[in-house]
Each structure stands twice: as C-alpha cells, then as structure tokens.
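Working notes for the structural subgroup meeting. M.R. asked for a predicted model of this chain before we commit to crystallization trials. I am recording the input and output together here so anyone reviewing the notebook later can reproduce the run.

Input as submitted:
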Amino acid sequence: MGPGATSGPLQSPVADFWDTVEGLATVEQRLLASAAIVLVAFVLASVVLPVAVRLSATLLDSRVPEGRVRTVGEQFSHYVPTTLANMYLRLLQFAAALAATLALLVTWNRLGAAQEVLTTLGITTGRLTVILLTSGLFFAAYLVANALRELVEQYSDGADQITDHQEEIIIRIGNVGLFTLALTGALTLWGIDLSGLLVGAGFLGIVVGLAARQTLGSLIAGFVLMFSQPFTIGDWVEIGGHEGIVTNITVMNTRMKNFDGESIVMPNDQVSNEPITNRSAQGHLRVRVDVGVDYETDPEHAEEVALEAIGEAGHVSEAPSPQVIPKAFGDSAVILELRFWIDRPTPARKWRAIGEVIRGVKRAFEAEGIKIPFPQRELSGRADTGGFRVRDGTGEATEPEEIGPSPED
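Returned structure, recorded in token form:
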C-alpha cells in the first residue's frame, strides 16, 4: 500500500514522509526506525518539553505585572487541582505521543489506521495549517509586544518627561492593539466573517456609550491627565477644595491622601473640570506670615529685625530672598507681612519653616524691645452723660479714679 492509495487528511504529510519509509526494506530497519521514533518522543516528552514549559512559566511570571491577569491565574490554580503550566505540558506531551504514534503507523505501512486516527480527532491537513499559522501569529504578536516593552523602557530611561505610570499605560495600549490585530487575523484564518461582528460591536459601543457616559468620560480624562501631566505621584496639590499628596493616578480616578490621613478618590472627569493648584511643580513655594507691632515702634526697625530673624531660620531658602512688607493698619498694631520661600515644598517643610520663623521673630522682637500688642479698646463717654460711672457691690455709683501714668512710663 503506497502513498497513492492514501486519501483524506494524510495525503500530503504521508507523501513527504513516505520517501524515507520506502527506504526501510527490511523488518530490522523498520524496528530500528521505530526505536528511534520512540526514543525521540520519550526524550521530547520527559526532558525537553518540561524544561521548555518551566522556562516559559518563569518568563511569563516575570513579564506579567501584579493585577487582574495574575489574580485570575492564581484563582484558577486554586480551584483546579493542577497548574496552568502542567496542563500546557500535558497537552504538549499528548501531541508528542500522537505524533510518535502516527509516525510508527506510517513506518509499518498502516496508513489506513493513521488516517482513521486523524479523522476521529477531526484533524485535516488544512486545519493543521490553520492551527500552525494561528500559533505563529500569536507568537509573533508576543515577540513584538516584548520588543515594544524594551523600546519604551529604553526611551523612558533617557526621557524625564515619561513617568513609570505613563510607561506602563503605553505598553498596555500597545499590547492590546497587537493582540487585537492577532485575534482579527486568527478569526480571518478560521473563516469567520467579521462584518457582522463589527456591526454588532458598533451597536454595542453606542449602547455602552449612552449607558456609561460618566465612566467613559473618566476614562478619556484619565488618558488626558496622564499625558498632559498637571501633576505626578507624590505632588502636593489642591483640587476642587481638596488638598493632599497624590498617591496614585489611574485611567479612571486620582487618589490623594490629605493631612489627616484620609484617602480621597476623585473621578478623573471631575479632576479635569476643577482648578488644580500644584505646590510642588516649581520646586519652591512662597509662604506668608502676618505679625503686628506696636504703633509706637519704628516700622523700618521692626522690618530689619524681622528680616534678620527670618534669614536665620533653617528651612527658609536664601534665594529668592525673604521680604518684610508693611501690610495694613490693624486695630491695635501695624501689620507686617513676612514673605519667605522654601525648597522642595511639602506640608511638613512648610509648617516647620513657619514655626521657625515665628519663634525666631518673637525672640528677636523681645531682644529689641519691640512689642507685639494684644487687641486693645479705648472707651470714652459722651460729655452730657458725665462720663463713666462704676457701681460697687452695694449698687451705689462712684466716680472712677483718674489713672495717672504708670511708673514704667
């Protein structure tokens, strides 16, 4: 029975393999070929494939970030009494055993039995070709995704404008695009008409867009925030009346931690519509503190003393230089505004600098005899009422004694 008698799924593969088999004229040669096939299949299934699967699992474990994909894989491994790697290994070992069985059947000229095996499994030459092309397509997409990751990481290392979060977003978008193209190509190879699928996807997109306008708005605003970079993780910002340190930026929301330890989650569409004050963007921040001096004090002398005290504070920046500006006439004092800058602004540095300035200015004023007055009120009565009268505990009105100048004056 030669290859010409073979029809169906084995016609092309057997035609290529038969030339080698025809050279095996004796039983001894066929036994030797069978032993070689069994040995190769055994080494492949017991040594080569386990090592390859283990290396692939290690590579994927290092490539897959913490997130939903890894969580799904761990949950699957928890409920199924085997790992994904073992399932993949068993599938490959089954394929190796099947290939060895077919090779043995062809070697011993049992082409009809081999054809029945493949027909039972539903494997034809055309389907084998499609399977190989599909596997190659996804493997190529995986290689391109790895190359894209390395390219983006190499570029981001030399560009300070790209943050780690933006780098991860670019890589994920690229991966989604690559595997979407691979899936589209695979569906085309399997003869699936994509026109109906595209029409259904378009209709579904309209329905989802109407039902989840706010979610889609947050998603789009998230991408805008990531690439416009009004703030980054670790910045001290104020957004819509909420002030704190940015702890995370996702495609859906922005997370902050305020100074009371509370976590604030704001949708990105709300963030993009609110005024944003970034106190960390410039690398320095000006702080203002008001102090009042007695009206009898020379303002210029008080300014000089305060300016010298500010310069001695440890957390105050030397450039730009501090300033002391007369601000207003208060009820009991002349108000001086102390202006100074801090570097690498954080809430802690700001309040430490304010505390140092207040303590330093108070000590300097006390050393120079400059008074920081408390609120005072001057009371006077109308002339036709005879001035003020003070009543003692008996209810009798007495004239208040005139208070002369104090001994200190």
